[in-house]
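Hey,

Quick one before I head out. I ran the complex with fe (ii) ion overnight. Inputs first:
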Amino acid sequence: MDNKSRERQFRSILYELEGNPDIQKMKQYSQHKVSNTFTHSHNVAVYAYYLAERLKWEVDMRALVMGAMLHDYYLYDARKSSIGGYRHGIGHPLTALANADKIFELSARTKNIITSHMWPLTFLHLPKCKEAVLVNIADKYCAFMEMGRGIVHIEQVMGKM
Ligand SMILES: [Fe+2]
Ligand SMILES: [Fe+2]
């Protein structure tokens, strides 16, 4: 598959998921000061795909995009919730998995992406596939850009894909 076809495949899976009302729910929860969980997850999907292209890694595109869009599917506002910062940091990947698993058909790869995205903080949940490594890195990069630099859309700081 050439890069144009891969980009088409990436965009079609991304837009299909972003149009899903269950995914749209993430817009209610603010995250990283300037973003909400929906825009943050969009950024992670875009950046994880960008990294896969840069590294020329062949990836399972559906697992990558689903994992990126659902990695923070915990559905609460971390700053307003009574859950402390550390407990949220450690616990939200499994909450996201439990929520997502009720609604979506998740492959083993997608599940690994969700549960391992906070590694090494959650040291028992290691990224075990390329897609999980990409989302793990993209999540940290996007969180830094959102919190540290006030970037809402990661496309603002990326070169042309
Ligand atoms: Fe997270
Ligand atoms: Fe995240």
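The chain has a mean pLDDT of 94.

Talk tomorrow,
K.
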